[in-house]
Amino acid sequence: MKPLNRKLLRELLHMKGQMLAVAAVVACGISVFVSMSSVEYSLRLSKQTYYSQYRFADVFMQVKRAPSSMIDLVRTIDGVAAVRTRIIADVTLDVAGLDEPASGRLVSIPEKRRQVLNDVFLREGRYIRQGHPEEVIASETFMDANGLKLGDSVGAVINGRWKELRIVGKGLSPEYIYEVQPGAFFPDNRRFGVFWMGRDAMDASLDMTGAFNDLSLSLTHGASEKDVIQRLDQLFSRYGSLGAYGRGEQLSDRFISDEIKQLGIQITVLPTIFLAVAIFLLNIVLRRLVSTERDQIAVLKAVGYTNEEIGLHYLGFAMVPVVVGALAGTGLGAWLGVQLTGIYAAFYNFSELLYSFRLREVALSVLLSLGAAVAGAMGAVRQSVALPPAEAMRPDAPVVYKPGVLDRQAFQKKISVPVRIIVRNLERRPWKAALSVLMIAFAVAILIAGRYSYDAVNHILLVEFSQKHREDLTVLFNESRPRSVSNDLASLTGVLQQEYYRDEPARLRFAHRSRRQSITGLQHVDGLRRLVDARNRSYSLPENGLLLTTTLAGILGVSPGDTLTVEFLQGKRHTARVPVAGTIDELLGLSAYMRLDELDMMTRSPGLVSGSYLTIDGKEADALFSKLKQMPGVGGTSMLKAMQKSFEELIARSMTTSTVILTLFAAVLAFAVVYNGARISLSERSRELSSLRVLGMTRREIALILLGEQAILTIVAIPAGFLIGIVLSVMLALGLSSELYRMPVIFSNVNFIFALAVIVMVAVVSSLMVRFRLNRLDLIAVLKTRE
């Protein structure tokens, strides 16, 4: 082994604590990068593969009822590659072991299996048989949530008639990667499922022979989606079309696409912080090392070593811990990626979601770590090679200092010597102190940002399930019904309170912008259904005009006082001019609200309702549920508390995992900064501290001088970290928000107390370790003067 390599190894072992701390910080940053990059790629690849294998459509459209002959006209549209017509119906289900009614979406499939758009992946069982109208394929999530097996039956009310559906297959579809009930945002897999049923059976059950109510198609390469959608709207306007839309507006695709986008944001933020801290630590450690080895550098140059050899030698002090950290971080990142992929598999329903680890991630992690090593060591390396041998043989020139604030005569007797020494040292090295504070503050910020999602989700749950919605049960009609139907619900035994509402599909236009959006007509907003914004503030319905969510107003480019052109997509399909009366910053989705009586007048078809909100008597719930399970005209029901419980159970695992990971990583970051800062201070001031010991100071006073400085830096860093954490959380909220949901910027006291407790605990542990080394300080060896 070459002499310089032996020297490198010997000094690395001597500085193993500091080097391991640097390696740990690098490992954290690389592991976050590798895991998030791999998961993002795995989700993207799984989505693309799933869409391709099962032919996920590019354009979708729902109609009231259109003749099957229209398919020939659709095929003539320029850019259309393949077309599929279907029948889709929402029904009420009676599931064994489930007291309350469940909701199901029936989707028609060919009687004989063939390749079609939006095909079904069979996990278990078999395809339906021709001539067996009772056979269906049920969604995997619904079957698993209810403990259903192949051969089990589920009761359903289809077009007012009771029918037993026998499950022969367990399946999935790219159309329902995120499987939620229409109109909902949170999955409730036990009470909502998708069922694929033979086309002939659905034709007969729904009186749809020779017709369809759903159209999907794929486009040729380079085709204009906008032109195809415009042509479809023209062709099907007389058949009750609700407006064609592209894949980007399909609910399931929007959820998974937003998730992939969010992962891309997270890939850059956290690794950047960790690698920045690693650069800082390496720079400080190596500058101190070069300063203490001036005489050795002079000797090396005198005996013939070149500047390049000496520079590479000191660069090795950075390369070794960083390479070790990169290797450990890559392995840890691969393991974390597997765990995170398992969590995403619980949220999203892929036919196969496999963790894909690419060499690209390894290469990028190595490049990132090498970049961190070079950036951190460059200043120290330049300092080492710039020293001429004759100058390097002399000790550093004493630094000229000015009296500090506490060195004035007025403070001499009032403040103890250790405190004056601490303050004096901080005053003389303000930039080093400021950087140390910033690095510790980053650790605090990661803790704040890591738990921010807890606060945000809890706030969403509070607003959505406690303030905005106060009903126990929502009953959805399979089509608009006379208001008397809703009144019939109110008369059922067990119903304590009832409010009806109306959803009217429309296209909102302003200048060159337009958006398909249902207008919700409400009786009032001081009962079961309320209007509450992101800050939990209540709103009332305007006397005249529309109340739009802030995001929808931004998409349309309107503000209060502007006038929208509203094209109604049902009934007489007329247009109206409606003023925008105000906006409300809701957390979920896009909405347009107005008074129910005004909506009735605008649609020219008064007295219709789309569903009802109910509060029920728990003692009469079983009897009420039995009635609803067999009630014709009911397209589905949703239980508010059940949906909330399902969502909380679903996110509990992911929230706990991410919080634990970020807490551990932030603790490593804080420990590395505090421990290295104290160790470097001990190395730099060992002669000074030893002299003070010889002059009569106790070990406790010496420890106070050394560790008190680190304590002050940590105390100052905590509020700075709170501020940076808030800024980082705001950035994450902006980056993670989408049209489907907005992350509220809100923080609980528990968040800040948790971050404070972790940082204090880490600072105490690192201080105890440095105190141990301080107690073992060899006074005689330290006080030897270098001549």
UniProtKB/TrEMBL annotation:
Q: Where are the transmembrane segments?
A: 20-39, 263-286, 314-347, 362-381, 433-454, 660-682, 703-734, 746-770
Q: Give compartment(s).
A: Cell membrane
Q: Name one GO biological process term.
A: lipoprotein localization to outer membrane
Q: Name one Pfam family in it.
A: FtsX
Q: Matching InterPro entries, A to Z?
A: ABC3_permease_C (IPR003838), Lipoprotein-release_system (IPR051447)
- Cellular component terms (Gene Ontology): plasma membrane protein complex
Keywords from the UniProt entry: Cell membrane, Membrane, Transmembrane, Transmembrane helix
Principal place of residence = membrane
The family this protein is said to belong to: Belongs to the ABC-4 integral membrane protein family. LolC/E subfamily.
**What name does this protein carry?**
ABC3 transporter permease C-terminal domain-containing protein
Which organism was this protein described from? Prosthecochloris aestuarii (strain DSM 271 / SK 413)
